[in-house]
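Quick illustration, no need to memorize.
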Amino acid sequence: MSASSSDSQSAARRQLQELLSTIEQLALSGLPVPQFHAEFVQHVTHGLDAEAGFVLLGTQRQPDSDPQQPDSGDSARHDVDYRVAARCERDGDGTSAIGLLRQDAAHTAVIERVWNDARSTAVLPGEAGNPTQRVLLIVPLTDTQSGQPFGIIELIRLSGIEPLAIENYLRLIERMARQAALFHKVSGLNDGQRHTQAHTQFLQAVHASLDRRRTAYAIVNEGRLLAGCERLSLALWDGHHCELEAVSGQGWFERRSRSVMLLEQLATQVASSQQPLWYGNGTPPPQHLTAAIMEYVDATKAREIVVVPVAQADETTKPDGHGVSTGPRPPLSMLLIAEQFSASAPPRSGRTTANDRPYLSSGSDQRDRA
């Protein structure tokens, strides 16, 4: 693989990570529902380079029963009333494509099928339900508890996408659709309830699996929102060296990349000192860590870094009457690394503003993140 191809793939991964991070923050933003839908579809449409996108909200209604009509036996079938909750068109072609879709009866049948099956689909040009020359990506928005759809997001993209790429796009949209469902779940809660909900979701995710890697990713993905940072990473400590285990929003990272090796080097030095590190926002780094911090910051453009060593649980170490642990310090097992790249940290709860949320960087402003 050429260097330019590798750089292009790294830039694409960074853009997707920032898009997912923005959607996660939006889900806990506390925005009014119409504003959330407008920002949600705008971020998804632009972030996935679609020509247009729209969110449909639907209400199911049972058709009036007619005693004169025989029972078809399809009691699960529903009629659905849809309304466009938000739309985003990047050009005139996107606007005309949305108009075509809204007037096409076969496309309405596709929407009905996605709704009833609660399953994503892609409709290629020339297939039934697609009167455009574009690829249609249709994903249901489903309730987090019942699993029943309450809406649909649809993106319109240029044709010529490889089948594998189409599947990847659907999985990405499904991931963001889950954040939209989370927004609807918590939008009626106050700040205290929202924070409690985030804690509950974190605990449920962390205890959902005994697999070490899955648990590590649950900690960083769910913990990032609680920590109020842009990226949370987890590194394991073996007594001599730290190895990065999980990075929030990234199911895969290049372990040999310079930024990963520099972060592991910094984490190793922090673990050796057994003292937490806070760098940024006017806080000078400890002298013995200055070189490692500056090298990492120069490579990644991180503005703030917090590294917290986490000790193994030790039942023989009990707190005294003042809540302070007595006895020998238990050995370290891992480190949590919180990072902030933009000028202001994302809020932990409550409403965000345009300046709070990081947007996708331009091609000339890409950062070499882990």
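Confidence is low (pLDDT under 50) at residues 65-78, 344-370.
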